[in-house]
Amino acid sequence: MGALDSLSEYISDYFHVSRKRKKRKVKQTVNIKVKMDCDGCERRVKNAVSSMKGVETVELNRKIHKVTVSGYVEPKKVLKRVERTGKKAEIWPYVPYNVVAYPYAVGAYDKKAPAGYVRRSDQSQPLPGAPDDVIMSLFSDENPNACTVM
């Protein structure tokens, strides 16, 4: 194919043949929060999403109201397709509990969040330039090596 590619490049330089290249979609995983109560709701959402072009896998978790779609899809299109089923849906607003620096901050703690998750918010993240926990623990009473530092 190398010779054919170079030949087509050579010819296209003289004839200025322009082709529009399609924008390639990136393979990604989209997490959506959808309120599902029964098997019918679950089946309706799964059928709607799995019929989309580019979808490879669809995983549903009714207990935490989460739909995970992976494939060559756009998050907004998946969200609109789920909303067309009549269900209230939003992009997954939660992050794992251990990822957040301040899980009990005003915007982060949510009683409706599934176990082990807190709501994603700016207030729960540490401020840039704030002292790290590692530095603070150097002078802690629980640190057995604190006296060697001082």
From TrEMBL:
Entries under Gene3D superfamilies matching the protein: 3.30.70.100
The main location class comes to membrane
Write out the coiled-coil annotation as residue ranges.
Answer: none
Q: Superkingdom, according to UniProt? A: Eukaryota
Q: Does the keyword Lipoprotein apply?
A: yes
Give the subcellular location: Membrane
Q: Which GO terms describe its molecular function?
A: metal ion binding
Q: Which CDD domains match?
A: HMA
Q: Which InterPro entries match?
A: HMA_dom (IPR006121), HMA_dom_sf (IPR036163)
Which residues are in the HMA domain?
Answer: 27-90
* TM annotation in the entry: none
What Pfam families does its record include?
A: HMA (PF00403)
Write the record's keywords in alphabetical order, separated by commas. Answer: Cadmium, Lipoprotein, Membrane, Metal-binding, Methylation, Prenylation
Q: Name one GO biological process term.
A: response to stress
Query: How is this protein annotated for GO cellular component?
Result: membrane
- UniProt family annotation: Belongs to the HIPP family.
The identity of this protein, by name, is Heavy metal-associated isoprenylated plant protein 20
Q: Which organism is it from?
A: Raphanus sativus
